[in-house]
Give the backbone structure.
Amino acid sequence: MRILRLWAAKTKGLFMQRRDDQDLDGEIQVHIALLKERYVRQGMSAQDAHRAARIQFGNVTILKERRRAQRSFLSPAEIWGDIRFGMRMIMKQPGSNAAVVVALALGIAMTAAVFSFVNALLLRPPAGVKATGRLLEIWLHQRDSTGVQSYFPFTYPDYTDYRDHSRSLEGLLAFDGDGTRAIWNRAGEGQVIQGQVVSGNFFSLLGVTAALGRTISNADDQPGSPQLVVVLSHSFWERQFGADPSVVGRTLVLNGATFNIIGVAPAGFTGMVVAADPDFWAPLTAQEQFTHDKGRLTDRHGYWLIVAGRMKAGVDAVQAQAEMHVLAHRAELDHPDTNKNLDATVYAATLVPGPYRGYVRAFTGLLLAIFALVLLIACTNAASLLLARATHRAREMAIRSALGAGRARLIRQILVESLLLSSMAGMAGVLLAWWLARLLLGLKPPSLPVTLEVPLDWRVLLFAVLVSLATGVVFGIVPALRCARVEAAPVLKEETKSAGLRKSRLRSLLLIGEIAACVVLLACAALCVRSLMHANSIDPGFDTRNIAVATLDPEALGYSPEKIAAFYRQMLDHVRALPNVTAASYVNHLPLGTSREQTSLGRTFDKASDQIPTDVFRVGSGYFSAMGVLLLRGRDFTQKESEDEEPGVAIVNEALARKLWPGEDPIGQRIAFGGEKTTGEVIGVVKDGKYRTLGEEPIRVVFRGQMPPMRTLVLRTSGDSRSVLEALRHEVQVVDPMMAATDVQTIEEYMALPLFPARTTGLLLGASGVLAVVLTAIGLFGVIAYVVSQRTHEIGVRMALGARRTDVMKLVMRQGLYVTMIGLGIGLAAACAAGRLLSPLLYGIGANDPMTLAGVAVGLAAVVMLACYLPARRAMLVDPSVALRYE
């Protein structure tokens, strides 16, 4: 209650300041008059009595300040006065203050740019969706497993079971999280577009209404529906149809099937998954037109649907989770062969699927920690500068204190100045953050099929404001407290103290912390840069030059196996006739990509334990020469062997040959494929390569025929492969105008994806490390230079008494060396711990590589010593006669 009365009195004081000031002035004058009258009666003259009364009454200014502080909050006039004075103080030293603002702006910009990605991925709700707080994602989860691999999307039968039996949710919607590609027959030519199949209640449950026409309904999502329908995205409608309002009622030919356009989605709506920007939505029951999988809607082993629901009024997430447990138990009893140990877990619906949010949090958290270190170094520099100024402004603060300013008033003035600096840095940081976010998006390889919007909305702006204010308080509070402890009498008597670093433990601690943080950043940056150098020099097992690739899927058009085989034969004939093409072949998927096929094989079928997991690549004749893979022994596939539905031959890599036939000749040996109960003869051995990641140890791989309908075409050229890309697209249209190739690119462009983690971390940490070194060097140089300037008189005395210039050099350098060695020791210990967090991103180098850490320590020590040498050299050249007169 006391606090409430105090705040009520302060609020009342805001509106009665003038009257309260007048009343206070009147009371003061009355008290002084009474004291004066008493002294007059004692025989003093009027002038002496008035002076004695003022002395006995005390400091009127302090009394008024205390009364104002008690009666009200800060008035706008007082705040404005502090701001104007703070701006005058900042303009007195524009150069050093500008350096502080730039350093802080870079740190704030980096953290705000990373937060903009956190906002886009984890905080921003799906655009155009109503009441997102009531939406829940539901994922199947193995009870006896942990980690993201234990979570599964839904099968269609599981989805319908949960949808029909749920009572706590208004309804359950489902959609294909991976999306689907479709070949759009436009004016007799094929064009690849992106789509998504969704349940009939997808739009209605999300509260999304069509901008034109209508959305998909439950009636459209029925098996055997006589009419195929599609809803266009707003951006696709504008881009491809010129925002024509008569588009509703027209048709689209997708994968050879005719779809009726029934509506256009509202602007900004892109669905429920981040980085997905579908061109159209179609009903779930139309998925066969895109996947050509007739049994997908009845398959209880095909996990492909992301499921979400909207909670009913009065239901919370705990109640919904309890019901999902019950439904999962019921499904386990009804279908023990497919749903054994499968539970259901709910998540709040965001743009990133629930099980994968931990990876996003970890990666963005790591980047935030890295850039926060840069900001911390910038704050340390600013704090060191203000501490130095606090010593220089000691006389000013002493005069203010003698005139009646209390500690709170002095602290407030210094904090206002620091907040002005951080506010200017924050405004510049927001602009830089917008640019940095676009720069980070530009690091994404073109082959990565994601579209991510990173807007600077109110969340990012609020974050930048809070970081700016916190930054101002962090680097301003210590100098403010130092100024508030000034002793007026010694300062006004000009009793100065030495400005050495050891005399200012706080300033030394700040410099030690700054150097330690710089060591951590620089060590992590050096590890990532060396890792990137190793990654670029790693032999992937195939040639990374003069190769063009493209993905083809004739099955999407509903072609028969015979027509597919004929298409690929014609395609090879056409591309092999292109100028500069020296070899061409097919593969089911390229190494180091996101696709993978595995099988189990061994020498016999006798024991299940003899079967070992092995990666499978299905390749055509001439693949190894087209990709530049070295065939060590044996021969390549023939055209017939690569096309046979049941090939009797296989080619293995060295790792598999060593595992199955150590010390034996693998050529002519037979492999038993456990999953198929068939055998194949080994006709060749190829050199080991990289198949999953660049940092992997050699893994076992078998190459087979039996090419799938969807293949990647590989062309080897005699020169720059970019010259054949346009001709390749043209030849696809010549062979089949309905067909469209996807992922048409050079092998260098393709390799940007596996190198993406190393390049991104190397670039970001490298830039952060360089910036940290620059800030640390500037900070130490500024502090040492200031200390030297404060000790000019002392240095002059030393030199007048016989000290040599080398003695002065040692005196100054010793101060820098003292904090440098301590900072390096602490920083190296912290860098060893931080390096372990980066170990998954490092190639060919240990997380605590001694050469890297030693190089960082030596390099940073050299930079820091140079920053100390420059002011030391200046001190060494001081003229004693001038220094003795220095004030």
Q: What stands out?
A: The longest helix spans residues 357-392. The chain is about 50% helix and 15% strand. The CA atoms of residues 200 and 221 lie 5 Å apart.
